Every structure is written in C-alpha cells, then in structure tokens.
Amino acid sequence: MPDVPDSEHDDEYVDRITNNAEVLKSAWQGALEDMEALADEREDEGWETVTMMAGSTGTQHREAGDDDRFGLVFVVPKNHGEEFTEVFGDKEFPEYEVFRREVDGNVFLVVEYRDPETETAVFVAAQYELRHAPGMVHDAEDAGEFYTYVQKLDGTILGVFKHDSHEKFVPYAERIDDWKPEL
C-alpha cells in the first residue's frame, strides 16, 4: 500500500467524499458500463475479451514497499484472476488504450490491453485518487517507462504490462505535485 501523507485537510477530505458519494458512485458505474460497451465492440469484431473490475487500485512507488515496483496495481477478485490467468498465458499485449475520466480528484479508468495476433483483449476498470499519484509519476519519469500490474488480494502478481510512458494514465504529470482537491 502506498504511504498516505498526513494532511491538515483530513476532515475536509472526509466531508468532500461524503458529500460527493453519489457523484463518485455514478462515475464508477459509468466506468463499468464503458468497459462492457468497449468489450462488446471488440467481440463484435470477432475478438476474445475478458473484463475485470479492480476491487482496489494502488499507486505503487519505489519508496513504498519492499521492492522496486512502481505503477498502478489492479487488485482483482479471485474469479477474475483465474479468468485473467487463462487469457494472459503466453500472449503478448503490445497495444493498449486508456479511457479515463476525473471526478473530484478521483480517476476512473478503463484500460484495454490488446494482442492483435490472437485478437484477444483484456479490459480492466479501476479507480484511484490523484493525491496518491506523485511518487508513482516521479518514478515513471525517472525510469522513462510505466507499469501496470494485475494481482490477487494476497499479493500474487498475475501479470505485468510495461508501457512507454505514464502519460495515458496521468496526462498532466507536471501538475501532479501541486494537485489539490477543490474544497
């Protein structure tokens, strides 16, 4: 789990989340619907698809944890993990697209990983808070690459995707250190 910096605005943060619960719930539902619609489009084109909802999404950076990982960590339920493992197997997913929307400091995204050779696509719907992203973004800038992980709740990594950049996931990294929620 990433370190969560202490904030003098904790009470304001709780109030903000509480007051926007319906908006955030609607945004999450929208991400799930978008994922299913995108998967349906691929299936109509003859592709095999897998859709997964991340039960939790972590913004991993090198200073948080015992390893050198950084990027987004999608924690998936056991049933989705088994389906993902069957499809991930020995395939390569050289193409990807990120569909994202921000709502009050929360990023709701759908990531599509594509293997054109086998016409297989994996879709992951996830959500994370921008306030946890600076360490992850700085590691990506230093390394010149970005990673996304699919893992089980017990920490077992089921798959790793390497990306050339974090820009599709966090497109305005130059502002990430100054990002503050609207109060």
Gist of the model:
This protein has 183 residues and is of the alpha/beta class. The chain has helices at residues 10-19, 21-44, 78-88, 134-143; strands at residues 48-53, 56-60, 71-75, 95-103, 106-115, 120-129, 146-151, 157-163.
Describe it for me?
It is a single chain. By secondary structure, this protein is α/β, with parallel strands linked by helices. The chain is 30% helix and 32% strand. Strand 7 and strand 8 (157-163) form a beta hairpin.
Give the SSE layout.
Elements: H1 10-19, H2 21-44, E1 48-53, E2 56-60, E3 71-75, H3 78-88, E4 95-103, E5 106-115, E6 120-129, H4 134-143, E7 146-151, E8 157-163
Parallel strand pairs: 1-6, 3-7
Antiparallel strand pairs: 2-3, 4-5, 5-6, 7-8
Q: How many strands appear in the DSSP assignment?
A: 8
**Helix amount:** 25-40%
List the helices and strands in order. HHEEEHEEEHEE
Main sheet strand line-up: 1-6-5-4
Number of helices: 4
**What would the average pLDDT be, to the nearest integer?**
88
What structural class should be given to the helix and strand makeup?
Answer: alpha/beta
Structural shape: globular
What is the CA–CA distance across the termini?
26 Å
What is the beta-strand fraction?
25-35%
- Would you identify the regions where 5 or more consecutive residues have pLDDT less than 50? none
> Tell me about the biggest sheet?
4 strands, mixed
Radius of gyration: 16 Å
